[in-house]
Amino acid sequence: MSLTVRLKNIGILKQAEFSLGDLTLICGENNTGKTYAAYILYSFLESWRKFIDMPIDDGQIHSLLSDGALKIDLTQYVEKANQMLAEACKRYSEQLHEVFAASEDEFPDSEFHIKPSAINMQNHGFEGEMGINQEPFLIASKEKGSEELILSLAVDRKTKTRVDSIFAEDIVRFTIGNAIFSNAFPRPFICSVERTGAAIFEKELNFSRNRLLDEISKADQKIDARELLLKSYKNYPAPVEDNVEFTREIKEAAKRKSFIAKEHPEILDDFTDIVGGGYAITQNDSLYYTPKGTRQRLTMDLSSSSVRSLLDLNFYLHCRAEKGDLLMIDEPELSLHPENQRRIARLFARLANIGVKVFVTTHSDYIVKELNTLIMLNHDKPHLKRIAEKNGYRDSELINVDQVKVYIAEKALLPLEEGQKRRNRGHTLVPAKIHSRFGIGVSSFDKTIDDMNRIQDEIVWGEE
Predict the structure, then answer these.
(1) pLDDT by residue (tens digit) across 255-276?
(2) Are 207 and 346 spatial neighbours (Cβ–Cβ below 8 Å)?
(3) How far apart are CA 398 and CA 336, in angstroms?
(4) Phi, psi values for residue 94, rounded to 5°
(5) What is the pLDDT of residues 187-222, one digit of tens each?
(6) What is the spatial distance between Cα 126 and Cα 139, in angstroms, rounded to a whole number?
(7) Element (H, E) at 446
(8) pLDDT at residue 232 in the model
(9) In this structure, are strands 23-28 and 357-362 parallel, antiparallel, or unpaired?
(10) Which of 83, 249, 313, 382 has its CA 20 to 30 A from that of 207?
């Protein structure tokens, strides 16, 4: 399953289109729209359920609440899936100012469109459970090859009578949407470029939230606590808010194990080597970093910036990752030594090969060049196998050229629009050429390196 995204008038991006591969990179200079593309995609994948309108009959809700069960034929919804998705994209586009925490007039003519390669619910089964206050309310299931969704209430008669029909309708709509679209859209996780700040101010974030809750408890009972809590975070783009929230909840997340921890612990061992130590949470919920080979425990504010920049990724890999996820990282090279930038590129390839899609925005020539190496080594030739073995490359790190998508954020000629006679120039995303023998071509990186080499050659040999 792949996704194609089209953007128009999103920040500095005038017009752009990109598709997701197993490993997707957006490269380019500063202020060319890379983060805009990442944030708008992440926020849609995180919130698409609330933008898709699933029509449901009042009689069906009544039957569910009275009989405790309901069967829904999904065929009618699948037939209109593309139309419903287009309308959802329109509604999402109209609320982009909320995604970026901007004023309402910041995105007047913006457009976001997303298209899965296919929407075919018959190819997969579905199981889900919805709850109220952490208590199960509705159990849903659909067998592979079937078009029938079976809903069953998981509450007793006394609870059913207290359930508002509108609330039940929202849950049913949500569940139908999941059954149809959940395999079309990956579950996203983002490490925003602001992650180092979220890590170092984790205690302050908790203190501020707790102080606000304390004030609410002393205030007028008519205050909507949820509205107040959400309002306090509206100064930041939605991906940054989510990053902050994940950092605050790391101690809770640490209680779970990801599929990587269960099936690929060697990946976590290698990641610990990149970090140079390990993260630990004590019994009193304090977060520490312990450098490898020592017993020293450092808080995040005393740890290096590289330790803080890798904090979210560490707990995602250990505790959150699921097959089919989309891991999004804004500038993974943040605070990393060039050697570790190479190792993080190899980590991304390994994740892509075990079923976690990776989306990266980067300025790092080291990351791009290392991915080149992984592509170029992935051929069945004796000398390549010797080179890979000599330099410590594993087969699990090599990646096929067809798995990789690379785009350059830059100013270029845009496609002709209806009524135009000549093409305009504007900021867009230009697909990079990727060759199985020569790797990825990123001209902006190559030009910078060529300029530096030329200047140094002139310094050394200029007198002759």
Answers:
(1) 899 999 999 999 999 999 999 9
(2) no
(3) 22
(4) -70, -15
(5) 999 999 888 877 666 555 554 455 555 555 555 555
(6) 11
(7) helix 443-461
(8) 47
(9) parallel
(10) 313
